């Protein structure tokens, strides 16, 4: 990473209070994020992967400044989004926009495409109708829709086209960062490829950065320069996709890779070990992955592994990272 | 398995389903035929609107009243198509049962899980409440729900997504059905949980000698979990055969396109995904000839004239395409690349 990063996240923590269970004890907490630090350079993409409950969506909401973190900072272009006034934040939102998972739920069915796409702009700028319409038309063409689509309603479009509308809405303010939470997981395979190609084209064209939240490792591999693997609110491994997927250094990344079914002849059943689901509320002293880890020993149960360098631009939070990297790696094709 | 020349458990012949959609009548399924013996597994692959779920629903007798079913569905030689609802109720959940995609909507939030797992036992096997409850606990234990005796009285919202799917599996298995239909059973779940659930289903299918129809849009899930597969597009089966055979030599341009369009691990940034141009057609306005003709890179005039016949391309492997000579020759290099 050179120069000042576009996005700088430091020691981000987020806790949610659970309902009080006893008068005499403090209410429990969900530790959704436990100290996440990450940087994204302009024009680069970060992929965030993990299972449900790993904190990846909380991370997205905090980067979008939709919630205030318990502690830590989110700085975009050098400004801490949680320290600026509401008015400044509103204007700053021009630079970061979001694309949601479900293109059926994220577009208002009662508004025309023109209104949906123009909305982020109308909040930010005062201009006449004709200017807005020209901008909408331009951005619709960029995502591969037609001018004539402006007067239509969301139900007239297929899932892939709706996701294009959602991307157009994010693009219209000419943002520097787009946070996409599972942007293609609700789409059919053949349409998924079209939307992913579009996202890649737009990145090349406008020098956008993406934060791509996904549970699909292949999608992240395809679109991102860097990948962070999250587990129970922590980044457990981070690095370039080729390092991560070919020489993974954390047993959790390996478990994720092993779990991907391979589309090829002679696949047959590959057995995977049973895995317990760890609690988000308990604070543990040792490694959070210890209950599921096949390599865990006493040291892992006692000391929390710090995120440390295991290769060029490759970080892992595991005491036994070297041992994991030395294991034969999962086959990659399919 | 050990039997010789037995009657297939389920035999579907020339199944057609006509549905009323907002855009007029649509032939959602046409000319679907397959047979499944006891203990065999079949995968259905395709995108939304290809007719795979409608096929499953017609086996379950769960189509809307307005649907017109043609052709025949035989279970152990008995005709199921157009069977009166009352008779179907005796089969459903008893001899044929289904696991749905969304475990949260498949479970009733107002009833305890124990009640829901016990329901088919009480209804079909006429178990007493106490007996059914005992059985339900045993079933929940078998599907790997932790501490079932204590949690049998809990409600669906108190469980995670993976646990809920285990509960719906316990419900589907309660009466030891002959045929299990799993419609995208793991689509709503994480990859690691997906593996566990698929392992569980595979174990149970083997242990109880059930037949299974697994519906998925994920070619990986299909490759690892079924013996035979059918690829559906626009309401017809475009390719079918033993799973290994199909993955070794994909014959239909659609199957090939679907395979290439998947983002693959190890495909680095900067490589482009090969898309299938166009979108999945509306069932109400399907082309007269080959349903894939509008999106097919190999289309010729003849394709648009009539629905192509099934062409034999290998042992038990058939493809509904008149251009397999070209598609299968071109594909050799493309798939290994």
TrEMBL record, chain A:
Listed GO CC annotations: plasma membrane
Coiled-coil regions listed: none
Residue ranges crossing the lipid bilayer per the database entry: none
One example of a Gene Ontology biological process annotation: transmembrane transport
Membrane association type: Peripheral membrane protein
Keyword list, A-Z: ATP-binding, Nucleotide-binding, Transport
Key word Ion transport present: no
Database matches in PANTHER family: D,D-DIPEPTIDE TRANSPORT ATP-BINDING PROTEIN DDPF-RELATED, TRANSPORT ATP-BINDING PROTEIN
Protein family: Belongs to the ABC transporter superfamily.
NCBIfam families: oligo_HPY
Function: Involved in beta-(1-->2)glucan export. Transmembrane domains (TMD) form a pore in the inner membrane and the ATP-binding domain (NBD) is responsible for energy generation.
Designated name of the protein: Peptide/nickel transport system ATP-binding protein
Organism, as annotated: Bradyrhizobium shewense
Higher taxonomy: Bacteria, Pseudomonadati, Pseudomonadota, Alphaproteobacteria, Hyphomicrobiales
TrEMBL record, chain B:
Protein name listed in UniProt: Peptide/nickel transport system ATP-binding protein
GO cellular component: plasma membrane
Subcellular localization: Cell inner membrane
Domain of life: Bacteria
Gene Ontology annotations of biological process type: peptide transport; transmembrane transport
Domain ABC transporter as annotated: residue spans: 10-259
Record-level Gene Ontology MF annotations: ATP binding; ATP hydrolysis activity
Keyword field: ATP-binding, Cell membrane, Membrane, Nucleotide-binding, Transport
Membrane topology note: Peripheral membrane protein
SUPFAM superfamilies named in the record: P-loop containing nucleoside triphosphate hydrolases
Purpose: Involved in beta-(1-->2)glucan export. Transmembrane domains (TMD) form a pore in the inner membrane and the ATP-binding domain (NBD) is responsible for energy generation.
Entry similarity comment: Belongs to the ABC transporter superfamily.
């Amino acid at each position: 990473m050179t120069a000042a990063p576009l996005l700088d996240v430091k020691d981000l923590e987020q806790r949610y209070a659970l309902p009080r269970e006893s008068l005499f004890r403090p209410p429990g907490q969900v530790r959704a994020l436990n100290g996440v630090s990450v940087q994204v350079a302009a024009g680069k993409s970060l992929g965030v992967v993990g299972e449900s409950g790993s904190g990846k969506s909380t991370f997205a909401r905090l980067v979008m400044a939709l919630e205030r973190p318990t502690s830590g900072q989110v700085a975009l272009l050098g400004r801490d989004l949680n320290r600026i006034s509401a008015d400044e934040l509103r204007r700053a939102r021009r630079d970061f926009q979001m694309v949601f998972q479900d293109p059926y739920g994220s577009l208002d069915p009662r508004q025309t495409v023109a209104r949906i796409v123009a909305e982020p702009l109308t909040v930010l700028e005062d201009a006449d109708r004709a200017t807005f319409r020209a901008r909408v038309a331009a951005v619709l063409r960029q995502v591969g829709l037609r001018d004539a689509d402006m007067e239509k309603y969301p139900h007239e479009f297929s899932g892939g086209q709706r996701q294009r509308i959602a991307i157009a809405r994010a693009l219209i303010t000419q943002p520097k960062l787009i946070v996409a939470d599972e942007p293609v997981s609700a789409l059919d395979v053949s349409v998924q490829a079209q939307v992913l190609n579009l996202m890649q084209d737009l990145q090349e064209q406008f020098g956008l950065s993406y934060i791509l939240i996904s549970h699909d490792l292949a999608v992240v591999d395809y679109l991102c320069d860097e990948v962070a693997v999250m587990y129970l609110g922590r980044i457990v491994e981070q690095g370039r996709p080729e390092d991560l997927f070919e020489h993974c250094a954390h047993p959790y990344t390996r478990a994720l890779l092993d779990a991907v079914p391979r589309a090829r002849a002679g696949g047959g059943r590959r057995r995977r070990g049973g895995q317990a689901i760890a609690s988000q509320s308990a604070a543990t002293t040792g490694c959070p992955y210890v209950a599921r880890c096949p390599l865990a020993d006493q040291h892992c149960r006692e000391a929390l592994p710090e995120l440390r360098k295991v290769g060029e631009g490759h970080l892992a939070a595991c005491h036994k990272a070297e041992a994991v990297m030395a294991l034969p790696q999962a086959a990659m094709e399919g | 398995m050990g039997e010789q020349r037995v009657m297939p458990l389920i035999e579907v012949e020339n199944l057609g389903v006509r549905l009323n959609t907002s855009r007029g009548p649509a032939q959602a399924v046409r000319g679907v035929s397959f047979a499944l013996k006891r203990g065999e597994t079949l995968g259905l692959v395709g995108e939304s609107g290809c007719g795979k779920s409608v096929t499953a629903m017609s086996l379950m007798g769960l189509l809307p009243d307005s649907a017109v079913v043609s052709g025949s569905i035989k279970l152990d030689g008995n005709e199921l198509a157009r069977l009166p609802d009352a008779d179907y109720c005796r089969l459903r959940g008893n001899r044929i049962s289904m696991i749905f995609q969304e475990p949260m909507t498949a479970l009733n939030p107002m009833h305890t899980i124990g009640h829901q797992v016990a329901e088919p036992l009480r209804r079909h096997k006429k178990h007493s409440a106490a007996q059914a409850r005992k059985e339900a606990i045993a079933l929940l234990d078998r599907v790997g729900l932790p501490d079932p005796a204590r949690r049998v009285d809990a409600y669906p919202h108190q469980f995670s997504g993976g646990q809920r799917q285990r509960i719906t599996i316990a419900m589907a298995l309660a009466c030891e059905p002959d045929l299990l239909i799993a419609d995208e059973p793991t689509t709503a779940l994480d990859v690691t949980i997906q593996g566990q659930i698929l392992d569980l289903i595979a174990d149970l299918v083997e242990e109880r000698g059930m037949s299974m129809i697994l519906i998925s849009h994920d070619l990986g899930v299909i490759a690892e979990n079924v013996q035979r597969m059918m690829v559906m597009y626009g309401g017809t089966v475009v390719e079918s055969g033993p799973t290994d055979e199909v993955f070794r030599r994909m014959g239909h341009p659609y199957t090939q396109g679907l395979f290439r369009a998947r983002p693959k691990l190890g495909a680095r940034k900067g490589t482009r995904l090969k898309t299938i141009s166009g979108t999945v057609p509306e069932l109400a306005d399907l082309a007269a000839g080959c349903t894939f003709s509008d999106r097919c890179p190999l289309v010729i005039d003849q394709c648009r004239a009539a629905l192509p016949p099934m062409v034999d391309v290998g042992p038990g492997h058939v493809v509904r395409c008149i251009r397999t000579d070209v598609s299968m020759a071109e594909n050799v290099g493309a798939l290994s690349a």
